Amino acid sequence: MSILYTVLQQKYDITGKNSLKYFAKTKSSGVTDFKSLCREISDSSSINKGDIMAVLDGCIRIMSRALSDGKIVRLGEFGSFQIGLSSEGALSEKAFNSSKITKAKILFRPGEDLTQMLTGLTYQKIKTK
Questions:
Q1: How far apart are CA 112 and CA 78, in angstroms?
Q2: How far apart are CA 108 and CA 78, in angstroms?
């Protein structure tokens, strides 16, 4: 199946001229929730859905703890997770302190298999409403 997208006009200000350009924006074709994912894994293996759910719940709990300790979490070919920060700027390093940090986020770097999947994608433009 193709990745669905629409085309939207947005400000493009890299040159400082406030020009308007058109850009692609993805549109979801649906959602695969946690239970559905566990069911699909169970259907293609000999492990029951409840055991898969328990393992993934445990993985999320341990990942959360490791990330909050400042660790990178590497999950093999799935990819790696790390905390990233956004902050306000300061005029000097001495003037910077943790109060300038505005947000923490989780960064995900996909593994080789997921990255390779991106090279084979096809795209389908849909009309906006």
A1: 8
A2: 10
Q: What is the phi/psi pair of residue 76, to 5°?
A: 55, -135
- Looking at the DSSP bridge assignments, the partners of residue 10 are 21
Give a three-class secondary structure readout of 44-66: CCCCCHHHHHHHHHHHHHHHHHH
Quick check: helix, strand or coil at residue 35?
helix
User: Residue 48 carries which side chain, given as an amino acid letter?
Assistant: N
Dihedral over alpha carbons 59, 60, 66, 72 (to 10 degrees)? 90
Whether residue 124 contacts residue 5, with contact meaning beta carbons closer than 8 Å, is answered with yes
SS3 73: strand
pLDDT in tens, 14-73: 766 778 889 999 999 999 999 999 999 999 999 999 999 999 999 999 999 999 999 999
Could you tell me if residue 69 is left (phi over 0), alpha (psi between -120 and 50 degrees) or otherwise beta? alpha
* Number of C-beta neighbours around residue 73 at 10 A: 19
d(CA 114, CA 79): 8
Element (H, E) at 40: helix 34-43
